[in-house]
Amino acid sequence: MASAPPMRRTSSGQFPLLREHALVPVGMATILPAAARHVRHLEAELLTHFHRFGYDEIILPTFEYLDVLMPGLEPTLLENSYKIVDRTTGRILLLRPDVTAQIARTVAMGMVGTRFPLRLSYRATVFRYEPEHAGRDREIFQVGAELIGADDPSADSEIIMLLIECLRQVGLRSFKISLGHVGFFKGLLIRAGLSSEGQKRAEQAAARKDVPRLGEILSHERVTKRSAHRILEALELCGQAEVLSKGRILAKGERPLLQALDRLANVYRLLCETGFQEAVLLDLGEFRGFDYYDGIVFDVFTDGIGVELGGGGRYDHLIGRFGRNLPSTGFALNVDRLFRALNLSDRTKSVGPEVLAVGPLGLSTRLVSVAQQLRQAGIRTVQRIVDSSRQDLIGVAVKAGLEAEIDTIIVVGTDSPTPEQVVVIHKGDRKRVARSIGHAHVHKRTVSIADLIASLRADLEGTI
Q1: Which ranges constitute the DSSP H helices of 252-306?
Q2: What are 229-256's pLDDT values in tens digits?
Q3: What domains can you pick out in the chain, each with its CATH number?
Q4: What is the largest CA-CA distance in the chain?
Q5: What dihedral angle (degrees, nearest 10) is formed by the CA atoms of 30, 35, 36, 37?
């Protein structure tokens, strides 16, 4: 983040003397106006690109009934969910901890129809408890997409292509997709004979790429040295096509492991054939933290951000937990992390034209009319009615523009031969204007309201 972070979050080291009286809960965000514009624009760009791929937006409830959503949530996530009592029914409500589980529940209930495959997209905030020392947010802004009802390598590659093209569309140039298959690593753990609890701990260590911890778990579970070597080698096996050959050696002819590698090879081949090879890195130790993933999985990383920007994968059995089996795949992006990766906090200009419309109290109706026409043309317009004489209106308008940091001003009610005309002021060097709030250091011209929008766009063409 820049020196003035756009997403202000409390942390374990912030305001130590005021911890008991913190005004904002730990891990929650306040997004200030300049950053909020960029965040909303970023979300809109992503959703627009999803739409171009055929993905329709779905808006999901912020709260869910615990007993309804519980089948789609792993125990750890359930434990870290925020829960309250519904005052109407007395049932326990969850503050949304995961969007994919919500979509699975919605699809299983038949609420989005029976025509498959379904292509859905969303933007949502999820809430999960995280210990303060973990340094992770409790409020997470997400944008994501889900492809439901298709089970073949082309569906896996489509969702990954969508992710790659979206990141390129918003301006992220350097990133890598870490691509793997849950079945390969899980298969190695199963063959090693770990207990169910030991396997779960090993999966959690693998998801964190914690090799020392994984080694400790395998030793504690009395896994043979040969099996432990296979597991630890697989966790660090990443690269290009050669990874698949090395994986087949580790598989030792075991059918489930070979099937996982075959599926991974087919997806990788499709991505290479369609020109996405440079963005993809094969990783046989790729293992996402959610237990509903059961096939192809992936994370996206970029320089300068120490954690993944997002990720996803195949979850063929999740919807079945709600009563209806449907093969599915999808991903979610962390908007906060993507925002930081794009360095959007350094971009201070607004998106699109911005003007200040100023007029005297006696012409407020006319001023509002002009402002409405500008807004209808898609121009961001701030209006200001001033108690000023018409003779002093230009100076007052320029001063108001300086205060608002808006360089283009529309003045209603002065230097206008007819009521259908307004004065357009475009300030050049703001510091020079600030030294002399007069008419000499500003460029102004009188135009008809009919020509105003075209004229304004021409004036602003080089400043947007």
Answers
A1: 255-273
A2: 889 988 888 999 999 999 999 999 899 9
A3: 7-345 (3.30.930.10), 354-460 (3.40.50.800)
A4: 93
A5: 170
